[in-house]
Amino acid sequence: MAVMEKLTYVIEEKVAPPLIRISRNRYLDSIQKAFITLMPFIILGSFFVLLGSFPVQAWQNLIEPISGHLSSANNATMGLLSIGLATGIGYFLSSFYSQHGEKVDPFSGAMISLFSFLILFPVGVSEEIGTYLPADNLGSTGMFTAIIVAIISTEIHRYLIKKDIVIKMPEGVPPMVTNAFTALIPVFATMVLWWVLRYILQVDVAAVIMAGFEPIIAGGTSAVAQFGAFFVDRILWFVGIHGSNVVGSVMTPVWIDMLGANTAAADAGETVPYIASAQFMAEFVRVSPLPLVVLMLMSAVKRYKTLGKLALAPSIFNIAEPIMFGLPIVLNPILFVPWVFGHLFLFIFSYFIISIGLVPAPFAAIPFTVPGPIAGYLGTGGSWAGALLATVNLVIMFFIWLPFYKVLEKQTLKEQYENEKQSTD
Amino acid sequence: MNILLVCSAGMSTSLLVTKMEKAAEEQGKDYKIWAVPEAEAAKHISNADVVLIGPQMRFWRKDAEKIAQPQNIPVDVIDTVAYGMNDGTAVIEFAEKLVNKK
């Protein structure tokens, strides 16, 4: 066990702290909070694409009159996501500063970021539809532009307020009026900056930022990078840290980029480009601890049985904390191997099954609390093969847990027996 | 007393809320207990008398303290065993101890 102790020490003391420090970075934190706020809209978009692509003929006939309009809900959410993202980052980053004692108004910050982002996209005029805003890069492709522009604009806003470069009103002027004037200089400073860049210097800011991030996206969306990120996720959970939350603070933009491409392809009836997406992970790889709960329900150890009953309902809905901390899996050397390598095996296995075409690649974002097989069915656009793979993965996980769990159970029973013997002696 | 629980999505702590409410009711205590995701927690802190964090989010503690300490609101991480076993009574007791200590 000395090796396990050393490993635990290394994860807890050396690996986790720098990762946590990165995820606590105020910019990454604001980005993540903005995405969390946008999640219901993303799920709504996925839901409508799902309705439109459901592979049942009777259903297709039924929705025929409105089938052309189902994508509109996705176009207005996922397709305009970057607008929401710029606004959200402006809001949460300003909130961060205002919570830390600075006088930055979060709503003004949100508005400044929103319009700083929008000014980068020249409004066009067409005879048919009148004036329009080209939406090509307002969805997931404009994400990095939204991130960079929102951060820069918020920082300028904050700097000007910090240095007190604002229009001051004499005392006695109503606060509403004062606030409107306070925002005037920051609004001018940020908007004029982006306007000059875009229209006077003719820099296509969005294109420049997108090109700059291209290598990162290309690297980040690869199955190898996703595998590595998932490994870190499992390792962090092993020491009792919310791995998905920490990893997500860095990976979410990449995940949303993949999701955007996947949903758009599914909506157009094309092949889903990314297999190892966040949806793949949620629907097939990050399976619930339900198999372990089943083992615990049959256990001779009273504590395990009680916990199994308690954790049954939460586990069905993919809430793992009672098992993680109650059994526990956290810092339990016996369960390290199945927890980390069992899930990594599911990653490779599911990737293989999908890449040879036995199961369609998932494309729809489903709330994480939807039980595995249902999520597998819906996520793949209503494929029974998807539901089957999610179920098979639970069974595989059962057999991966089994031998390790038996060792744990035996050890606990032995301890129980010795304790009882001691107390009767 | 107002007890705020915080975890990643507010899901696993909401399990605990039900158990804590039950425990408080049995003891005849009229406590307000609620769970929120970390992303929304900042604006809830000032309404709480005590902030309890799920152990998997323990790295959020310093951020929470920065907001809570100036308002003299205690912040702590819930014990892993009490959390895993969903022990409402133990967590209520823990919250009371934190509030009485300040």
UniProtKB/TrEMBL annotation, chain A:
UniProt membrane topology term: Multi-pass membrane protein
The UniProt record lists the keyword Acyltransferase: no
TM region positions: 34-56, 76-94, 106-125, 137-156, 177-197, 203-223, 235-256, 310-330, 384-404
InterPro entries for this protein: PTS_EIIC, PTS_EIIC_3, PTS_IIC_cello, PTS_Sugar-EIIC/EIIB
This protein's UniProt keywords: Cell membrane, Membrane, Phosphotransferase system, Sugar transport, Transmembrane, Transmembrane helix, Transport
Family matches, as Pfam families: PTS_EIIC (PF02378)
Domain PTS EIIC type-3: 11-404
Superkingdom per UniProt: Bacteria
Subcellular locations according to the entry: Cell membrane
Signal peptide: none
Claim: Transport is one of the keywords in the record: yes
Functional summary from the UniProt entry: The phosphoenolpyruvate-dependent sugar phosphotransferase system (PTS), a major carbohydrate active -transport system, catalyzes the phosphorylation of incoming sugar substrates concomitant with their translocation across the cell membrane.
NCBIfam families in UniProt: lacE
Protein name as annotated: Permease IIC component
Organism for this UniProt entry: Oceanobacillus neutriphilus
Automatic annotation (TrEMBL), chain B:
One Pfam short name: PTS_IIB
Modified-residue entries (Phosphocysteine), positions: C7
SUPFAM superfamilies: PTS system IIB component-like
Classification via PROSITE patterns: PTS_EIIB_TYPE_3
Species: Oceanobacillus neutriphilus
Gene3D superfamilies on file: 3.40.50.2300
PANTHER family: PTS SYSTEM N,N'-DIACETYLCHITOBIOSE-SPECIFIC EIIB COMPONENT (PTHR34581)
Keywords: Kinase, Phosphoprotein, Phosphotransferase system, Sugar transport, Transferase, Transport
Name of this protein: Lichenan-specific phosphotransferase enzyme IIB component
Annotated ranges, domain PTS EIIB type-3: 1-102
Keyword Ribonucleoprotein: no
Domain of life of the organism encoding this protein: Bacteria
